[in-house]
Amino acid sequence: MNKSEMETKPCWTEVLAQDGSALLTKGNSVTLYFEGDDVFEEMCREIATAKRFVNLEMYMFLSDGVGRMVAGALSEKAREGVRVRVVYDAIGSLSADEGMFEEMREAGVQVEVFRPVAPWRKRSGILGRNHRKNLIVDGRVAFTGGMNLGEVWSRKYRSDAWRDTHMKVEGPAAAACQYFFKESWHKVYQEAVEESCEYPLGKSGPGASDCVVVGGSGFCKRRAIRRLYSKAFANATCDVVMTVPYFVPPRRVLNGMRKRSREGLQVRVLVPRNSDVAFADWIREGLYPSLMDDGIEIHEYLGRVLHAKTMVFDNRLAVVGSANFDYLSISMNWELGVVVDDPEIVRQLMEQYEKDLEQSDLVQWDWAESRPWWRRGLAWIGAAMIRKL
Predict the structure, then answer these.
(1) Residue 61 per-residue DSSP state
(2) What's the pLDDT tens digit per position in 273-295?
């Protein structure tokens, strides 16, 4: 690491940590997952080893095969006397069967809903959803990233399961994930989480990862995720590689990204041709001309639904988390992201990025010719709107 890199890292870590929305941890073990079944099976294995507590906050906790498998693992732990807490988002889990949550409660799991949409209920609301995917076991291991609990991420149930990225962290970063879960629990239950985290002392040498865990908490700490993206672009010196399902960022973040590209930073963005949110695709397409004018390279993924939210910059630091590159995640939602300083994790993310490119097309100036007229019109309107945010 050269002198300029040594000076850059503490600087932007310090900025991320403003208002307590980021925690720097050292000596972690990090594992990446690119298929949902691998994550869900490992989650259940770790839950089964819990001795003291299991805490989970999840945007989509669905009552299908995957959701019920995890619900069963949590319920079994609660029956054994382990403290188990679950927070699920009211809108994200809207289609879930309430009976599944009642069964969990009967087993001893403390289950709370985040911001119910019913105005007569306490702490209700529409905006500012809990979009995190955060599981902590005994404070020694945590899972976070882009995958919710549902069959749509499982190839056992669907041959077209979504392409996503998730991670497991072991060590002090797990305690940092627990720190941010405490915010959610206090929001829904008005009770402090008292259990201490017990994890092995930080590793050193090869395989040891320094992690900055960043938690955005709605309007209270709404700048956390914006700072994460802004500082990544501001401090990158060579290139930034992004994989995002939605590209609808606030104007300030978008302008910062375009400015760095004009200054010579190589910016590459991988997005789905057709995501699960059509209007987000239309808005993104309306931005194509100005993005290409500024030298930003855009690829459209043509395979399965792309839902991963990752970033690599300067081929040195990686970001994996729940936050989309859109206005809601950056400015309103409760999110969780992890910045990882580990060459092996960077290598794995770049390897997956290259695999994804094999199923992608480069966006060129004739891109609009393959879209119907009404989609081009909506793209123009959407881009005009996003420039005002």
Answers:
(1) B
(2) 999 998 889 889 989 999 999 99
Give me the residues paired with residue 216 across strands. 335
| CA gap 108, 123 in Å, rounded | 23
Q: Does residue 24 contact residue 98 with C-beta atoms inside 8 Å?
A: no
Q: Is the dihedral of CA 228, 229, 233, 234 positive or negative?
A: negative
- Give the DSSP letter of residue 94: T
- Tell me the torsion sign for CA atoms 195, 109, 216, 311: positive
Give just the sign of the alpha carbon dihedral 92, 95, 101, 102: positive
Provide φ and ψ at 105, rounded to 5°.
-60, -40
Average pLDDT, the chain: 89
CB within 8 A of 168, min separation 6: which ones?
Answer: 30, 31, 33, 39, 42, 46, 141, 142, 143
Burial class (CB in 10 A: 0-12, 13-18, 19+), 362: exposed
Query: Residue 168: exposed, middle, or buried by beta-carbon count in 10 A (0-12, 13-18, 19+)?
Result: buried
User: Distance (Å, rounded) from C-alpha 276 to C-alpha 279?
Assistant: 9
- Confidence band for 119, pLDDT divided at 50, 70 and 90: low
Left, alpha or beta for 374 (phi > 0: left; psi -120 to 50: alpha)? alpha
* Residue 114 Cα to chain centre, angstroms: 18
Residue 246 to residue 248: CA distance in whole angstroms: 6
Within 44-187, strands assigned E span 53-58, 83-89, 110-114, 133-137, 141-145, 166-170
Which residue is it, tokens 């709107």? 385
Q: In this structure, are residues 85 and 113 in contact, taking their beta carbons and an 8 Å threshold?
A: no
Which tokens go with 209?
Answer: 């990862």
Helix%, strand%, coil% for the chain, nearest 5: 40, 25, 35
Cα(105)–Cα(279) distance, rounded to whole angstroms? 38
Helix/strand/coil for 266: strand
